[in-house]
Write a structure and sequence with these properties.
The chain has about 400 residues and is of the alpha/beta class. Helices cover about 40% and strands about 10% of the residues. The chain has 14 helices and 14 strands. It binds pyridoxal-5'-phosphate.
Length: about 400
């Protein structure tokens, strides 16, 4: 990991950027970014990041889609309004998840992360509240920090997902959060999917208390035990925003995602987005749309699911073989992560330091993705199975198992 420049040594623009405004002051560099740099190093075991397997990107098909778009479409390199045919593809994909919407309710974004950022800016007043799980996607936490948001946290049940009655209790107590954030399938970091009953109940809670829900469906295409259940928005189209993305199943570098929102809100999102980056890359929108036109997407996703199941199961076997028996985890039915619990006395920050230095194994420690001080999840680790072959997974978990056993001694 690169050492950061000491604050006292900063000069010129670096110094100006290090002093407030609010946003720059509070947006600290995320640990996950540092682990990303390490993942690129040879001979490391990058279990830290939810990176899709690079060798499974449909490179030829994407190249062909880009070639086609550039050869036939004079607008492909120009500023342009959002590409209607791509929105209609999204409408079709959302219908398969029980979400009925029209093209005018689909707002295209540069990935799910931009969807999160825009909705936070739309809904949250500086210093306001939002309900999140106590271990959650760090990209949401990063979006909350510049607004000095004080998260109200609820726990996650590792069988059935977010503790939705906890959400109800927070709202019953009189709190008025700007929104409730949930990850319905393949939760990051907990690996769990929200039960069908809880999806309906969360929609009901949103409706009753008139509080918006943001459901982040970044992993919805990666369900391993049959078709994914209907989304939370399928239970209430008035109070639930759905965020989606092609990052995990096509390629994150394309930066194509979406928000499903009421039409009036789409217009406001558009104004917000224009203040930072104008359009989602015109070329990427049209290339993704051309790729989807070919009909190859479903087969591609089926291949991904098969491969990720093989990797998930390899990690399960390796955990069984090499981790101490006190370690607790569940096999995830969707997404890319195992969420492993060690005995309370272990702090996984300490385990990470040793694992990186001695074994070149990276993972995300619980504290790094905690919405509060992280004490409740300080003994957890998030292990991603997507970026390594089953053989590398076995070798890396064997190494990590040694470090964990040592920490328990
Ligand atoms: C829950 C969750 N939401 C959003 C994202 C960001 O996805 P995108 O590449 O579409 O911005 C990620 C990526 O890891 C994620 O895990």
């Amino acid at each position: 990991m690169k050492a950061r420049e000491p604050a006292a040594k900063r000069r010129g623009i670096a110094k100006a950027a290090a002093t407030p405004p609010l946003a720059a002051r509070t947006l600290h560099q995320s640990l996950l970014r540092e682990l990303q740099a390490m993942a690129a190093e040879k001979d490391s075991f990058p279990f830290a990041l939810g990176m899709p397997a690079a060798e499974l990107f449909p490179r030829d098909a994407i190249a062909e889609a880009v070639r086609l778009v550039l050869s036939r479409d004079p607008v492909a390199l120009q500023y342009a309004v959002p590409f209607e045919p791509l929105k209609l593809h999204v409408v079709k994909r959302m219908a398969a998840r029980g979400v009925a919407c029209t093209g005018s309710q689909v707002f295209l974004t540069a990935g799910a992360q931009q969807g999160i950022n825009l909705l936070v800016r739309l809904l949250l007043e500086p210093g306001g509240h939002a309900v999140v799980e106590d271990a959650t996607y760090d990209g949401m936490l990063m979006a909350l920090r510049p607004l000095a948001c004080r998260p109200l946290t609820v726990e996650t049940d590792l069988e059935s997902g977010m503790h939705v009655e906890g959400v109800d209790a927070v709202l019953q107590s009189g709190a008025r959060p700007a929104f409730v954030y949930t990850i319905p399938d393949g939760h990051n970091p907990c690996g769990v999917s929200l039960s069908v009953a809880k999806r309906a109940r969360l929609a009901e809670i949103a409706r009753t208390h008139e509080v918006p829900v943001i459901e982040d469906d970044a992993y919805g295409f990666l369900n391993y035990s049959g078709p994914a259940p209907p989304l939370v928005r399928a239970h209430d189209a008035q109070w639930v925003f759905t965020i989606g993305s092609f990052s995990k199943v096509l390629a994150p570098s394309l930066r194509v995602g979406w928000i499903v929102a009421p039409e009036a809100v789409v217009a406001r999102l558009s104004i917000l987005k224009h203040s930072s980056d104008l359009d989602v890359s015109t070329l990427a929108q049209r290339a993704v749309s051309a790729y989807l036109d070919t009909g190859a997407f479903d087969n591609h996703v089926a291949t991904l699911r098969r491969e990720y199941v093989a990797r998930r199961d390899a990690m399960g076997r390796a955990l069984e073989a090499h981790f101490p028996s006190e370690a607790r985890y569940r096999v995830p039915a969707a997404g890319l992560f195992y969420w492993v619990e060690l005995p309370r006395r272990v702090d996984t920050n300490d385990v990470l330091r040793v694992a990186l230095a001695k074994e070149r194994v990276a993972f995300v420690p619980g504290r790094a993705i905690a919405a509060d001080d992280g004490d409740r999840v300080s003994n957890f680790m998030r292990l991603s199975f997507s970026a390594c072959t089953p053989e590398r997974i076995e070798a890396g978990i064997r190494r990590l198992g040694r470090v964990v056993k040592e920490a328990l001694r």
